[in-house]
Amino acid sequence: MSATSSAAVAVELAVSARQVRRTFGEREVLRGIDLQFGRGEFVALLGRSGSGKSTFLRALAGLDGGVEGEIRVPKRRSVVFQDPRLLPWASVLDNVVLGLSGRGVSGRSANDKGRAMLAEVGLDGHEQDWPKTLSGGEAQRAALARALVRSPQLLLLDEPFGALDALTRVRMHALVQQLHARYRPAVLLVTHDVDEAVLLADRVLVLTDGVISLDVTVDVSSPRLRSDPAFIALRSQLLAELGVDESAEGHHPSTTTTENTPITTTGALQ
Ligand SMILES: Nc1ncnc2c1ncn2[C@@H]1O[C@H](COP(=O)(O)OP(=O)(O)OP(=O)(O)O)[C@@H](O)[C@H]1O
Ligand SMILES: [Mg+2]
């Protein structure tokens, strides 16, 4: 590769992490993570509970002052957590636009952007509602709208669908796919759900013992169907890497009802 083309590749990177370490007391949770991914790339991060996924996400978000190593991320970053974290005393619209005016967007234009984004996540008509009147799925869609209204170059999702019921989760998957296709932020999705990772991501990582122990490209043709042999093979590979015995965990991929309904492997990975 010529010098020029390597420079071009470097410019296209959204995230570059080198030898990222994080220690809490005696415990080294992240033990030298190296990871690069490009603009618009959708990366899923799997790992057992307590393996350090959220710690790594917080490091990329710039929320953790105690991290060692080199991290390069875009300036415009947004995070969505498992709980929507909406301010209870502000309307849904105010929650979404909060912080936009501090970024040089006038109040009126911020409100217009916020309304448009709420419409995109299917929450038009809820602008003036109080957060506590929203269902779990609606609140999480408001949190997504709040994240996306800032046009992030990097969207960090920490188990954003973990607390939702199966049907709402399927709808959220479709919404996230649609929004990703439209706005093309680089995404890091932390999840416990192997099928969710394979359905949504371009690439799946597994975090084990403080390092990335597996980094695979999702090579399953679209629309991704759980019945596709490539899907099944990748699921098995990921479950094995996570140390989950599919038969012992009662994981029966062939018994699921409809295509594209994710099987929640969450219980198996706790
Ligand atoms: N501020 C902190 N102080 C001390 N220990 C911490 C702190 N934050 C995280 N840890 C520890 O680091 C480890 C990794 O935590 P982390 O939240 O990153 O795991 P996780 O992979 O996101 O788990 P889960 O899937 O359950 O969300 C855990 O053992 C946790 O107790
Ligand atoms: Mg976590």
Walk me through this protein's architecture.
The protein has 270 residues and is an alpha/beta fold. It has one domain (42-62, 75-269): P-loop containing nucleotide triphosphate hydrolases (Rossmann fold). It is built from 9 helices and 9 strands. The strands form 2 sheets. Strands 5-6-7-3-8-9 form a 6-stranded mixed beta sheet, sandwiched between helices. Helix 4 (107-120) packs across helix 5 (136-148). The termini are far apart. The model is unreliable at 1-9 and 252-270 (pLDDT under 50). The structure holds adenosine-5'-triphosphate (ATP) and magnesium ion. The site of magnesium ion (MG) has 3 residues, from helix 2.
Keyphrases for this structure?
270 residues; alpha/beta; Rossmann fold; three-stranded antiparallel sheet; 9 helices; 9 strands; 34% helix; disordered N terminus; disordered C terminus; binds adenosine-5'-triphosphate; binds magnesium ion
Note the topology.
Elements lengths: L2 H9 L1 E12 L2 E12 L3 E6 L5 H9 L6 E5 L4 E4 L11 H6 L9 H14 L15 H13 L5 E5 L7 H18 L2 E5 L3 H7 L2 E6 L2 E7 L11 H13 L24 H4 L1
Parallel strand pairs: 3-7, 3-8, 5-6, 6-7
Antiparallel strand pairs: 1-2, 1-4, 8-9
Helix pairs in contact: 4-5
Bound molecules: adenosine-5'-triphosphate (ATP) and magnesium ion.
